[in-house]
Fold each of these.
Amino acid sequence: MPVFFLLVLILCSSCMEVPCNRSYQGPRTPDQGLLGYYSYPNTPCPVTRTTIRSNKRYGLDKVYIQVPDVPPCSNQPIRLDYYWQTRPGRHPAVLIWPISGGVDFCVEAFARLFTSEGSNCAVVHNRPVDLKAVKTAEQVETYFRQVVMDGRKVLDWLQDQPDVDPERIGELGLSLGGIKAALVAAVDHRVKAVVMGLAGGTIADIAVSSHERGLKRYIDRWQQVGVSRERIYQELLAAVQTDPVKLACYLDASRCLLFLAIFDQSVPTKCGNRLRQAIGGPMTIYLPTGHYSAVLFLPYAQLRSLAFLKHHLAKG
């Protein structure tokens, strides 16, 4: 057996899989107040779309959806990398949210795999946000609320595409993207299945306990001017309602797959477990890694995610 495949086999056998909670009773239905909070004007947004490349199997387009300016997002359009099937007909689609650093080879690897297996994929680029400009917990809430509205706008666009089956739309997100995927799927049930990689909550808990360099520096700067860690935590906990743990009851645990890293210090494992519990016990795969070393399991995560989404987005 080649050394590479032997290594993959050893790595995969070290993962721990916890099945979905058998006593799970189902999700709550979002009420009109919640849906109203994440509503937006039902008016067409200007869209530009440019084909970057195409071949016999799929094409790749750059798509820009112009939405109203919402601080701290600074009048940035929603940017998509849209992978589309060249064969005719309607196909499932997967909305993909990247890590905080942006679209990287991991995200592209998921998109290419899903596309090769017959799905369209819309990779949503992160809006540029300057952490130094974020002065209040309310601004953090504004950002995550805008994430949900952005996601819903992308879903609007996807379901209008002639090559997309609007009844077969899924989501996948990694790290910060996993948090975003959870938020959008909780509010908008056009998402039929969701994969969350290395996600967690609450936002307040992640902010004060993460070892992520940029976030840690941000918290340290506030402490240097006399704002205590406890005050930061309490203000975020009170202000940030668009939080994966707070919205988790609206997710269908039977249609969620969660990947957590046992030694994660960026999105601490305790935060991932808190999200898992709040959802109601979805199928969870624990990787014997930290946050960034989880990349060793990328091929495994790709195949498990593909199988999960194929099952839940199948016709009939």
Note: The CA atoms of residues 83 and 112 lie 8 Å apart.
Amino acid sequence: MPRSSGSEKKIRENICPRCGAASATGELCGSCRIHENPWFTCGKRVVCILCPTCGSRKEGGVWTDTVAEREEIARDLVRRSVQIVPEVARPVLKISVKEMTINRSLAEVVLEGTLFGEPVHAMCQVEILWQKEQCDRCSRISGSYYEGIVQVRASGRRPYRHEIRTVERIAREIEEGCYASGERLSFISDTDETKDGLDITVGSQHIGQAIAAAIVQRLGGRFSTHPKLVGERAGKRLYRITYSVRLPRYGKGDVIVVNGRPGEVIYASGREIRYREIANGTERSAREDRVERYIGSTRDAREYLVTFRQGNTIGVLDPETGTPRECFVGRDAEYVPGQTIRILNDGDDLLVVGER
């Protein structure tokens, strides 16, 4: 019997043993290897839990905030439910989502790529179930849960209107900062303006402490904490804390008299006051008990028109009556006729507290 030639042996070795197609190595060809080894898995169903109040999302028992649209969330869930083996080169995943009902969507998935030198293509469907559940934050807010109250008062007076507005702004800034950093339970559940000041009800002790500290830093004064035991949970004592903020008697912008000279308050801690003398702009400090009297606030100053200047004296027109008045200004003050300036009345005297 004649021997087989070398070329015939090579041809036999380069044939796929399963389908008979050409094979570079004589083993299973790419097509047969693809059919023998599943190259992807596709989940049949995924579930998404959203809070109907704030839209936050629950995954693995943990609530997180999200601003993504429903279709974007669906695509992300479907993408994570599809697994493609790493041997697939240049994988492509195409997803189209169709809304079936308010609680159910259907995703059509097309998968493409190259495996063992052969192009691969497949399709599958993934069902998305939308479930509603109130999140931890909204549940606490709706249930009037709180861990503290920030009480804002002022020494010897009621907080000014601008101080109330500033406190509210500070509190919201702190809340937004906590929310942005992932502190979902650090919220403000209520603000209540009383005859004595402002009460801010907070959902965590952390935000209460932060708000109280920020108010004092911005407006001066001091604060103290007063915890109250309200029960136990899992053997741990639970407290609610009152953060008592006491604004100083004199606040920024107040005009006071110290050593017979008027000055505008720059900052007050409650015991010490830093102020700027109106006559010459010199900054000084004094204890609160050295204040001789309170004139008013620069926020209450009215606008006057300068009519003339002679040395350290300027003439102005009363904005209500048109009556000409005169007042003293410092040597360095650059007020000229025709200019509008802000003046505070101190009985028979006029105090210039700045330009318009």
Note: Residues 113 and 172 are 51 Å apart (CA to CA).
